[in-house]
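Exercise 7. Given the encoded structure of a 311-residue chain, write a plausible sequence.
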């Protein structure tokens, strides 16, 4: 019996690994495309509150249409579910808009270098808020993460305080989002895809009034005219691309969060940042100095040490 069953289990495990590998590769590729179009849009149209809102609106619309046409099964939601989703949605909204504000002020690579420090925030929040303690190597691994991010920040050629703070706020908000959403998804029958769809819709409702207050239709109309005059009518497609890819990469990341531990997720997320950092430096010809790149490399190596220490 054992001899017969073992290969089946191995086969299942291999299939699961391949599935997660495909999720990860898709997630990273979609994220690279999102980051490039998002930055192209922000360069011509520096209104991050509107672009963040449009990303959520586009995803919400795509999912509402998928449910209405039965391409995807609509989830059954009750008030208890919505209540547990609210803190996730608040954290998602803050993390999303803060990252976009950051990217409107600094190079994409810089935002993502600072965002590679997310594990340090995760330890800090787990320690200070949840009272968790970790083995010494975990704390030690934070030194290269924090030191590397600091080195990258002080040697950044186009440093900007809002750009830096936006990425830091995004780190903090996303740590809370990941803690709350893993809790919220546990034991629920809702799929990762539908969970993220509900999250998008709720975040859209939260963000819209703030976006209007922070920027507003007048600024948007003038900015849009400017962007179209600069880029041409194709500008609208850049906006569409950044919005669709934003939804897709997040949807795939939630589909993989369904299958893996938060730790594996955060390691996957850091590896995703390497592809974003490298591709955005190439595409946008971002000027970097060797010591700046060294800081980024140390921070990312620190994340690798962190994942080993946390096993
Ligand atoms: C956003 O706009 O939400 C950020 O670019 C997201 O950053 P992430 O890489 O942590 O998803």
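Solution.
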């Amino acid at each position: 019996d054992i001899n017969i069953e073992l290969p089946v289990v191995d086969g299942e495990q291999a299939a699961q690994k391949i599935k997660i590998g495909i999720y990860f590769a898709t997630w990273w590729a979609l994220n690279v495309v999102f980051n490039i179009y998002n930055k192209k849009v922000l360069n011509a149209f520096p209104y991050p509150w509107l672009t963040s809102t449009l990303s959520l609106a586009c995803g919400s619309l795509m999912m509402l249409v998928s449910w209405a046409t039965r391409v995807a099964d609509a989830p059954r939601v009750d008030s208890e579910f919505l209540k547990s989703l609210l803190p996730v949605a608040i954290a998602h909204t803050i993390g999303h808009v803060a990252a976009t504000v950051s990217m409107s002020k600094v190079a994409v690579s810089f935002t993502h270098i600072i965002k590679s420090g997310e594990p340090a925030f995760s330890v800090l929040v787990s320690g200070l808020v949840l009272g968790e303690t970790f083995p010494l190597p975990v704390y030690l691994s934070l030194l290269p993460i924090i030191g590397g991010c600091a080195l990258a920040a002080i040697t950044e050629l186009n440093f900007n305080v809002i750009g830096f703070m936006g990425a830091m706020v995004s780190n903090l908000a996303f740590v809370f989002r990941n803690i709350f959403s893993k809790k919220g998804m546990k034991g629920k029958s809702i799929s990762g895809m539908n969970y993220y769809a509900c999250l998008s819709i709720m975040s859209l409702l939260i963000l819209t009034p703030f976006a209007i207050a922070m920027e507003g239709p007048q600024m948007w109309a003038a900015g849009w005219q400017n962007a179209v005059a600069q880029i041409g009518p194709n500008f609208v497609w850049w906006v569409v691309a950044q919005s669709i890819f934003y939804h897709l990469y997040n949807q795939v990341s939630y589909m993989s969060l369904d299958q893996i531990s938060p730790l594996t997720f955060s390691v996957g997320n850091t590896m995703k940042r390497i592809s974003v950092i490298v591709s955005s430096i190439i595409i946008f010809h971002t000027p970097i100095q060797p010591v700046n790149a060294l800081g980024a490399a140390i921070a990312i190596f620190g994340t690798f040490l962190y994942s080993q220490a946390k096993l």
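Remark. The chain is about 85% helix and 0% strand. Students should compare their own answers with the one above.
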